[in-house]
Amino acid sequence: MLLAFAAPAAWAGVTLGSPTAYATGNNPLYVAVGDLNGDGLPDLATSDNSGGDVTSLLNKGAGAFQKKGSYAISGSPGLGQLFLGPFLGTGHLDAAVFTSTFPTVFDFLPGGGDGSFGSTSPTKLTPAQNSSQVDGGPLTSDGRYGLVVADSSAKTIDVWVATGNGTFGTEPSLVTSPYAATDVAIGDVNGDGIPDVVAGDNGLDCFLGNGNGTFQAAKHSLKGSAVHRIALADFNGDGHLDVGYADGTGSPRVGVFLGAGDCTFSAPLSTQPTAASTDFLSAADLDSDGRPDLVASANSTTGFSIYLGNGDGTLAAPQTTTVESRTVTLADLNGDRNPDLAVAGGTQNKALVYLSTPPTASLSSTSLGFGDQVVGAAGMQTLALTNTSAATLPYVNPQFSIEGDNASDFSVSGCSTPVAPGATCTLSVAFTPSATGSRTASLRIVDNAVGGGWTVPLSGTGLPAPLLTHSSAPILGGLSQAHKKWREGRGKKKGAAPTGTTFKFTLNEAAQVKMSFAGKAPGRRVGKKCVAPTAGNAKRSRCSRAVAAGVQTISGKAGSNSVAFNGKVGGKKLKLGTYTVTIVATNAAGQASAPQSLTFTIVP
User: Fold this and answer.
1) Which residues of 375-412 are buried (b: 16+ CB within 10 A; e: fewer)?
2) Quick one: which of 198, 375, 396, 546 has the fewest CB in 10 Å?
3) 55 pLDDT higher than 80
4) What is the pTM of this model?
5) What helix, strand, coil percent values describe the chain, rounded to 5?
């Protein structure tokens, strides 16, 4: 049954649509995601606390759901955390449910393969009486699923690994003593391909996996940090898992402990406040900028909060709903490669689905042909990428790559920061043939926009270097400068413009390059000319005239050339102001290229 639901206030930078509500059992506290009927689409299951049921919602496509049914746990206990996985060897996803009533146990419902669940399995797991937080997932190098349970009383973590035949092997408990674990998470912390376990307590305990369901002794970090809930993600983009956390202090806050890749962690760079004590954390990139974000819910009638990641391990200020949100699970529910939100709605008796709205983009050209190019000399063309949507495009290298037989003859640069809605970034593609003849490759652009990016064919022909017969003038091309506005190094004002600039150009042969600099000065219009002001023309109309500021000559080489310039011409510094530099290349036969010019401004 589909239910109408009011939309939340607009999110700043988050591409989530209005929520759609689906009826569940009574008081769902947790929602899990998995393909319950084998159709390749992610389905939902909720643990219904008041009714003691697990409810399945099947994905009809495009992130729309339909209730399959509610399946009772024998004895109708209150239900807490829920996990889907191949626990019982049914060949389908089974449900593992942690009961929230005393004594706590793990009950299992075998998956039916069509979205339904069978009767309660005789398999039960009984953790210690003070166990509360659980995580489930692969625990071995061969992918066997299992469960890890924090026991705050015994100061240990129970580990159960599924055998594949409906039973579990009990592995040695992980010792957190003298600290009591408050949450656990599974992830590959050191990048060796083997699942590890991280526990939050009075700081962090990290247990490196051995690949067989057992773990090494704890490495403890950040003693004295009151960690309450945790979620793993690479928040600063260094290739190592970090720990997003919520603390358990009287003034609760969230932040990120940065991972070193060796099961140790460092203190957060900064933290953000939360409106209520957080009881559930999850992480994914919600604003499509290539950086993980954090979602916190309080498992209460209050809403959830989104903390956008800044990409350096810090978080932006929270954006909070007022919709009852017991727990929030992040997954791509509609196949657009962007994470969506599935929310357990508690006393509303609903699961809420927030679908992300993927961005759209346009490309100025679908192919680039460079024509003839001398071997070793660079030719340049550009592509404009325009964000045509209200969502950010995370264009950050290496999301651009060159592929194909002659990939090394082509290179790409530009678009090194996310592209804001409505903005355009420019990709510069260079062709420098290494051999004569036809040269081909493809530019691959990977993004989160509808369609998933582009493949742009690249082509050109390498020509042999010309004999120096000087039958034609040199070809001067690709003139550019690093900065249009810069300073000579005078002044120390914070945020000042960059110091100096660099002129770049290409030549098809070696040549002497003359760089003529001209400034601007006031003048008077006499006829069609702008001349220096005098007493005789004082009443003439004003104009701006070019005034020679000096000449600099360098020896240019065939191919790419780069000239650093700090504002000195002939040993003298140019004054502050706007100048034009005109560049002409002359070969050994005295033939001159067509002039090319750039304008720049020297500022304090």
Assistant:
1) bbbbbbbebebbbebebbbbbbeebbebebebbebbeb
2) 546
3) yes
4) 0.67
5) 0, 50, 45
